[in-house]
């Protein structure tokens, strides 16, 4: 048993579009560039005061170019930052820093590490293709700066040069830094984005469950409140039909009115059965909650057995939805049987869902519950390579209710245990029913 998310989760990924944020705000790039300009000016002033020799005019012109770019963006800021515009801005910074490095000693420049800043920022905000392009450009410019860099001069006129082996080591370190910082930043950002998207889908799924529950209560109240007036209409229509037997046309109208009242009453009874009374909206026996969670998957093939003895618990949409995802996973990968068992110990309530499928791959056990563990398109029945959003939603919802989940193999397939402190799940069942809301007619 693992996560093969239900069709509802698939629709969440296709129909619910999270707002597309800017890759990085232009204001952020401008602020970062001001910090870089301040650092560059400070380095130039310190080197000048120490008597270090370098081409001051070209260096100052490069810093002035950055200042000009920032002032232009300040006076004419774009409404939104597109990925292409962000790449151009970071590319400008990369060229400016690399050229400064080449003019101020190349690999001997102690601030050469700052050439990694643009590609690191890109890795945290742009897609892999754009990051790869900037990374390759960074390596190329570092190589040019190392090959064509102009040496610095000491106050007495001697050249400041690095030993060739040290220069090579510095170049290798910068190239490794490009790969490491860009790869690490991009991976962390992608995982944070996946988690954010999965949490958004979780909130939408829970919101839907709550709306359905509230709708059930409204329907039950409507069925209850409208039963009496419909019975009165039926009674009067029947009496009118008896009195109008001498007028076939009016008699037929009265019969039609009585039949319509019967039909309305039948529809409301059917709808009322789908709703829950006030007490059941808030609390229910543990077995009833498990049956509610398992009901969408009871007729999908494998036999679903519920062996449950337990207290009255909170009938929380989040709990039901989380358990439903776990049961769905078991049904998806079971050979013929899914067993849901409960155990109550002092201070603890345990719900166990087990199937007779192939079990979890051992290499994935430690990662179960991570969002988007692998691509949904790779999920096949009988394969556990599709675990992702559905199980993440279940784990998130159940943990928010105070539960702790554990995943294991055995019995003979996969086993999921959900443990609640009893005071976090138990509900009071000896409470008075409230009045159904009045419906104005």
UniProtKB/TrEMBL annotation:
Q: This protein is called what?
A: histidine kinase
Q: Which reaction does it catalyse?
A: ATP + protein L-histidine = ADP + protein N-phospho-L-histidine
Q: What keywords is this UniProt entry annotated with?
A: ATP-binding, Cell membrane, Kinase, Membrane, Nucleotide-binding, Phosphoprotein, Transferase, Transmembrane, Transmembrane helix
Q: Which InterPro entries match?
A: 2C_sensor_his_kinase, HATPase_C_sf, HATPase_dom, His_kinase_dom, HisK_dim/P_dom, HisK_dim/P_sf, RegB, Sig_transdc_His_kin-like_C
Q: Identify the CDD domains for this entry.
A: HisKA (cd00082)
User: Which Gene3D superfamilies does the annotation name?
Assistant: 1.10.287.130, Histidine kinase-like ATPase, C-terminal domain
| Flavoprotein among keywords | no
- Enumerate the subcellular locations listed in this protein's record, separating them with semicolons: Cell membrane
Q: Which residues form the Histidine kinase domain?
A: 221-424
Membrane topology, as annotated, equals: Multi-pass membrane protein
